Amino acid sequence: MTALPLAPAANPAATVLDRLNGEWLVIRDWVAAHAVAIGVALVLGTALYAALHLLRTYARRRARRKEPSLTITDILWRALARTATPTMLVVVLRLVAGQAQPPAAVTNAIAIAFTAAIALQGAIWAREIILGVVQRRAAEDGNETLANAAPIIRLLVSLTLFAIAAIVILDNVGVNVTGLIAGLGIGGIAIGLAAQGIFSDLFAALSIIFDRPFRKGETISFDTTTATVERIGLKSTRLRSVNGELLVVSNTNLLAKEISNFAHLDRRRVRLMFGLVYHTPVDMLRALPDRLAALAVPGGHEFIRAGVRALGASTIDCELVVDVHSDDLAAVLAARHTLAIDLLENLAAGGYALGYPTQTTYTAAPDGTLVMPYAASPTPRADPPRG
Fold first, then answer.
1. Sign of CA dihedral 178, 184, 185, 187
2. Strand 363-364 versus strand 259-261 pairing type
3. Cα-Cα-Cα-Cα dihedral of 48, 54, 56, 62, to 10°?
4. What letter does residue 215 receive in the DSSP assignment?
5. What is the pTM of this model?
6. pLDDT, tens only, 151-174
């Protein structure tokens, strides 16, 4: 049996060269057949590129202006100023390519380049917009913490946006990105678990900065503490308590509490409690609300209610509730002091007697006859019958 001769092994380099040569012939024939259309496309492309270049130049001028405050329009101009020249070229090619009817290979190359350019340019635009919003918020509030956190925010935003852009580009060129996405997800979970406390406080700080439940210099109350905010950090917030101590509270723990902010109150409620003796006449008790309502008039306060609140162990418990329309705590305390003095003067002028905790002890004989205090006409006790 005669062995058949083996076919010579194909040369990979020669195969690639043959393929490139074939593509070149196709492109040459296309250029020869569509010379006029290609010329029209070049003219249109040049005009479109010139228009985009002028728009970018204007955006760069607007971005260099030193405005007193950064507006949303300024942020958008700053983003447009970061448009790259390759991106504009690829966009122009994609817009005018249909005019020249290019072959499939050229069309596919332009489509891939367009997707890659738009993905990367979109990441750059999104980064500039996010950082511009951060800078605007820092400038509005004079927030030193947000200004210091800008490099970290820039790094996190850049990593996230460009990772998304890379995945979009790889998926567009036919790479299976499922495994890559799964790997990035697992890596992100591992990093998140390892630095859970740090990221928790960092995102809590960003929440405080952007949501603004309180600002530097404002007085807040959380849990059982009342303090003034001295500094908002990336991990913790420093507070000065009313007793003078410096409190350092992690941002996560601080947001976990119910916070009361006293900085933006347009009114504060003043409640004065007092007690009247039990032998106060009922008519005087009925007249008490109308009598005390006049106390709020001289100071321009708002009368809410007054009268009997409860029947205590030794006094008739009463209250006076007034709203003081002021956001100044010192003015509110002064108004409360004045109201308390006016209340005492008013009660004294009306013949009301303030009560105080008292107890009366009654001593009785075995048969129930009062011994002390002495009865007006003591009843003699009958002797028990003798058996």
1. positive
2. unpaired
3. -150
4. -
5. 0.52
6. 777 877 888 888 888 888 888 777
